[in-house]
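Supplementary Data S3. Sequence and structure tokens for construct A.
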Amino acid sequence: MSKELIRLRNLCMAFDDDPVLNNINLYINDKEFLTLLGPSGCGKTTTLRIIGGFTTPTSGDVLFDGVRINDVPPYRRKINTVFQKYALFPHLNVFENIAFGLRMQRRSDSADPAGKKQVRIPESEIQERVMEMLEIISLKGFEHRKPDALSGGQQQRVAIARALVNRPKVLLLDEPLGALDLKLRKDMQIELKRIQQQVGITFIYVTHDQEEALTMSDTIVVMDKGSIQQIGTPEDIYNEPKNAFVADFIGESNIIDGLMVRDNLVQMYGKQFPCLDGGFADNEPVDVVIRPEDIDIVSVEQGQLAGTVTNVTFKGMQYDIIVDFRGFKWLIQTTDHCPVGARIGIKIDPDGIHVMKKSSYSGMFGDYSSFSEEYDELDDASIGSDEEERGDET
């Protein structure tokens, strides 16, 4: 069983009477890779700064190993931080950049019974610990290079090694991949997870990038407007979102108004669909989430619903197809090409339908007519006759 390392209890934060965090309650386990995920301004970086000791909460407690640390300064916490700007010393080589914190560090002489005499870490130990870090970050042989002779990804790894060489129990990472290009960012996601598993400490990672969160995390904390919306594994967050915000922010989602007829049966567009969800009241209004990859395109006659293709975008591995169902536009991701203007049917298996309680986010997401400028807002001009109107209900 995992050991709890950090607990945030009833945490609130306000700047100039403007609430930034609203009653955050969260625990973080030892050796866990936890990601705070959300849009800009949601409070994730403020939460990270409070954990690191750079910001003092307006109210609430930060506990580390069961001890309240609200008033403990950053340098006395067993926590180090890597920021988006790596702040490597340009005049120092890789070895000295990593060793910098150790050279500044003093510790009590064990021979001193009063524990008051402070001695520097021996050079032999500095050498050993820096070389160990270079091995971990796969930069052995780079110790004499200056930062400007390194790639962005290598600079980032040096910054991580500089933080880890002090042997913290927690490493905080505030969007450290933001300055890297797409391919390098993907490579570094795998590298960061490998480093975390190898050193065996807790990583707390802040990002607005859903792919980073899904790729690296043991646990994802989705935040919005200063509040936690959902906590769970990447699989739970993606497959079982708690509300329309989470469903929209994590991956692509079609979010439709529905009616829960009874357990395992939901109604959309006047038609009933088998599903796997239960625990709702009979005929309760709900939000229905259908992921674009869970929709099968079939003929109009075979479809549970029928609509008109209004936009097609080639994405390499797949086509993103926008389909108009009586004015509400769905996104379908498929390897099958359908031309603009085609009438198609769709089928959805019961396990491809996820039903959620209505929330303050209901009605705000899921219609791809306004999701992105990439998709033109096109009317379904083919729905004009009574016959075609009835076709959408079959």
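Construct B, processed identically:
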Amino acid sequence: MSAPRWLFWHRRDLRLADNLGLAAAAAATAALSGVVVLDPAELAAPDQAPARLWFLAESLRELAARWQAAGSRLLVLQGDPGELLPRLAAATGAAVVAWNRGVEPAERERDRRVAAALQGDGVKVLVDWDQLLVPPETILTGGGAPYRVYGPYLRNWRGQVERRAIAGELDLRPAPRDLLDLDPAALPRPELWAALPRLEPLPAAAQLAAIASGSGPLQPASGDGRLLQPFSGAELCPCRPGEAAALAQLDAFADGGALASYEEGRNLPAEAGTSALSAALRFGTLSPRQAWAAAAVARYAARSDETLASISVWEQELAWREFYQQALLHFPELAAGPYRPQWRHFPWENDPTRLDAWKAGLTGMPIVDAAMRQLVGSGWMHNRCRMIVASYLVKDLICDWRLGERFFMEHLVDGDLAANNGGWQWSASSGMDPKPLRIFNPATQAGKFDAEAAYIRTWLPELAHVATPDLISGQIAPLERRGYPAPIVDHKQQQARFKALYANLPRG
């Protein structure tokens, strides 16, 4: 008797190695096929980014090759997963469909709908947590409530991670091997198989952009009609698609010295002091357990307190990622607005001219403009600069943080609802943070973290001739600007204005 066919539905886990849901499925049966469903409604989301479509398309290409090397295949369908997965299960005779859970409100609702459709047809569903080191339901306060403050969360999280590591629960799972492929000629429902909207060959990034814009193959998109252009910043983007590239970047970061000096290097945008693995973690071409394991190996080999401190700081960044994920899981309303209710009454000015200048990197504040040029040009922005430009938009230009949140999502290769929303609410002082108000002085930030203006000159080459102190302060003589604008606002004045508006917010 042949082994029962199972399907594994890939979403934010575009890898074979150390994939918990996939490993569980492969342990149950060798007759396993992978499936990706490209939903035009998701591809055409109003905040879709060409950079993410590029990363997705290239990662799928490698994922398909890995499935083939493992003995099976990756099926890529275009359409609604709630409709297509039951049809695929019926066509292939699949007894079980497995996948890994997500935290976003829309994906959780989608998964409930898909599970109900499959179970209604008699197909079993197997789900697991994969994208987090600690399942979010298990990390609660002493009173059984979800955490709202990072510090206490970090202490609980680290304790649980260390206990799970000792118990072997974070051991890396190998990629499945010796799988059994399906035979299209021997399927129980060949007519259903023939009618499936399979994408063969796999779509390139430009084709995904066409689908998102409503002009792609098979089905129209249902987004807001925004025309997406293919991503042109691949050579500038530090995030590399695919499972092999993610592991290579992790090894280079952990072994090449950047992790050992991370505590300082992570704040210097002109240097390669970060891992550049944010997109790999967002798409799941790398697992958080692989990241933690690399840190553990580096910790064992560390020879100085400075190195150990840097490793701890990087581990804390993994904790920030999980803090924001559990926050969105427990408080889905974060996706729509501020966590702190008084911020719903803030009188945002939302000056369109200032907002457009911020988006274009033409505010006259070089560190801000350099960061915005990096975002638009490369699909990525250094984290220190994300905080600088977010504070500037909210506290200097007095624009609603949600405008910045959406613009980031329209461009970031690592755009993730939980992390992006959490970061913007942190900068806006509207989120889960015990300190109610934080205002960055962009000139002070530039002087501290880009003291030689190397980052500014990289992304504002038209200002390469300007003296470093002037680049940092933004006080550039008119003849030196050569078309670059004067600062559109005065930080000191805007800081006072923002504080006055904030003081009038209702308390509680």
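The chain has 23 helices and five strands. Residues 218-223 have pLDDT under 50 and may be disordered.
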